Amino acid sequence: MNPYVGIEIDGDHMVLLADTPEGLLKHSVPTGKECELAHLQREVELFVQRLPYSPKGIGMGMPGLVVGHDRVELSHVVPALNGVTAGQFATAANLPVAFINDVKAATLAEAAHHTDRDTVAVVMIDTFIASGVVVKGNLLLGAKGWSGEFGYMVMSVDGEPKPLDLLASGYAITNQAGVDSATIRQLLEQNDAAALDTVHKAGTYLGYSLANLIHLYNPDVLVIGGSTPTYKGYMDAAMSALEAQALPELRKCCSIEAPRVQSHSMAYGAREWIQKLASAT
């Protein structure tokens, strides 16, 4: 039984999970831009109190820029997390708490299923886009832990620089179409020409960026997940652009796969993270 609590926070929910002798205990609470820090702290405290044992620590997958493993520098997704420190979630039991960027947490969760591979790259495309890379079991963090801001990759559109987030993400698609995600999906099923074109362009830009990622890191597995890849035609366009632009030698040694962890990968990865930190001390 894993003795650590795993938590993931996104723009809609905070999901908390922990093993118990009776099985996995899971709890979800709403978040959002108006969510207050005290609400999140209280829910973490109550969840820990519900456990039939005292956990060894808490790993938290946080949306935004995480400094080291104990501070959120910036979170546009949940503004209440701006500047928050790990100690503020230690609960009354004063448990060790470790933060990790949410997509890096998902990267760790996926890498745990590819221990036979040298370099595992993970790209998650939801409202926005981010990535993570694990090499020989070690997560690449960067100087301040901010590596993987894939959505900020700059591309040229009609001579103007634009970040990938504004070209290939779920936000880009709904913003350009002027309708919500559910409507986009309906239009795609109806083979609406405008919707298909919007999604095709977004997928093509993703494919170009994936070629860049493969050229930079030479992964032997690339995991692509999130809700946006499930749009009809999106991944077809992405793969077509990738195959056209990637160096054949690098592309040949890289398998492209769907996520092995189907839900709450960020919570599971955050739990992997605090375990790694604890074993290193």
Main beta sheet, described? Answer: 5 strands, mixed
Task: Give the quaternary arrangement of the chains.
Answer: single chain
Give the amount of beta strand, in percent: 25-35%
Structural class: alpha/beta
Helical percentage: 25-40%
Name the shape in a single word. Answer: globular
Mean pLDDT: 95
Tell how many strands the DSSP assignment holds.
14
Taking the alpha carbons of the first and last residues, their distance comes to 21 Å
Show unreliable segments.
none
Radius of gyration: 19 Å
Number of helices: 9
Strand order of the largest sheet: 3-2-1-4-7
Order of helices and strands: EEEHEEEEHEEEEEHHHHEHHEH
Q: How are the elements arranged and paired?
A:
Blueprint: E1 4-9, E2 13-20, E3 23-30, H1 37-50, E4 57-62, E5 65-67, E6 71-74, E7 97-101, H2 102-111, E8 119-125, E9 129-135, E10 138-139, E11 154-157, E12 160-163, H3 165-168, H4 170-177, H5 181-189, H6 193-217, E13 221-225, H7 234-245, H8 248-252, E14 255-257, H9 265-280
Parallel strand pairs: 1-4, 4-7, 8-13, 13-14
Antiparallel strand pairs: 1-2, 2-3, 5-6, 8-9, 9-10, 11-12
What does this structure look like?
The longest helix has 25 residues, at 193-217. The chain is of the alpha/beta class. The strands form four sheets. A five-stranded mixed β-sheet has the order 3-2-1-4-7, with helices on both faces. A five-stranded mixed β-sheet has the order 10-9-8-13-14, with helices on one face. A two-stranded antiparallel ribbon has the order 5-6. The model has no long low-confidence stretch (mean pLDDT 95). 37% of the residues lie in helices and 26% in strands. It has helices at 37-50, 102-111, 165-168, 170-177, 181-189, 193-217, 234-245, 248-252, 265-280; strands at 4-9, 13-20, 23-30, 57-62, 65-67, 71-74, 97-101, 119-125, 129-135, 138-139, 154-157, 160-163, 221-225, 255-257. The protein contains nine helices and 14 strands.
